[in-house]
Amino acid sequence: MSITITGTGSSLPPLSVTNHDLSDILDTSHEWIESRTGIESRHICEHGLTQTAAEAGANALKNAGRAADELDYILCATMSADYVTPALACLVQQELGASCPALDINAACSGFIYGLDMARALITSGRAKRILLIAAESMSRTVDWTKREVSVLFGDGAGAVVVEEGDDLLALRVGAVGRAEPLYMRRQASNCPYGSAETDDEDGYLHMDGREIYRFAVGAMVKDILSVLDDAGISPDQVDYVLPHQANLRILEAAAKKLPIAPEKFLNNMRHTGNTSAASIPILLDEACRAGTIRAGQILVMSAFGAGLTTGACIIKWSKD
Amino acid sequence: MVKEKVIAILAEYKDCDAEDIDAAQSFEELKLDSLDTVEIVMNLEEAFDIELKITEDLKTVQDVIDAIEKLV
Question: What mean pLDDT is predicted for residues A141-159?
Fold first, then answer.
């Protein structure tokens, strides 16, 4: 027994900010951003993340034909929720009117794949029958808006799936290589008089070594995708679509070039979302389902990488019409 | 030897003739941005079976050739 995804949903906050809008406030241009990232615009939460996350969750429940009181667990993958505590999952539980246990997991941009791993463990152990997994991020609050290198890359949004018993998840791998310096965000210095001095000069923004992450990401995607294909006994030509973490179009193109899978099978939507961290794969999944691109019987590959450094990949035989 | 191989890999990446690449040229002059540089370094690492450190010092094709010659 494994798991199946019985419903998908997503929500993007209404405000869409284009590269041209950004060139008004930063020393950058549409051409610079588009040629290096494939991003043209991104959505930004003006009123916090909780509502967006709850909307994505409600849409997934509706799509699955399930009610909030049928849920056994709510998992939220996030690193940028409105509150440090309580967990975003608890606030979503309140919004949806559910009464099940709820908690957040933080695996940065790999959070959705880690969430599927947790959901599978809860379901196959008999602990839960029905789980709402939401990946939601308001990355706009993590970046330094005076620095063009990082702020232009990210966007906000949420994607969700309802996970139940089934046989659709054919293989899943997650991994971590504990290293902070290529991609990290520290807490802002506290006023604790006994606090460690090493955090005092930190600004509390997201920091990224773009070239280092680019190299890590391309290598990890290629290795992880080949590994899960092997685990599932699926050959590359059987793959219908790859849903990669939407970090940067150039990373996807570089990985696609190194994999025996046709580049046109790599779906992308970062053109209008930017990098929404953990939320990127479930938003892409929901959009591709609603567009009719993804249909029952197809073999889907998902692959993500992020701070940690974490990675995750899985193979799903899609069964939902 | 290293020089010819580096230029061949660059030419393949840029989809141009090897004769159009001069080792004295910078990546910027070759119209290659920082992400292109990373990808080319990855291709070179695979071709030479080495690990290269990506630094700001790798500005020209010759800088890369020198870095590789120290490792092979």
Answer: 94
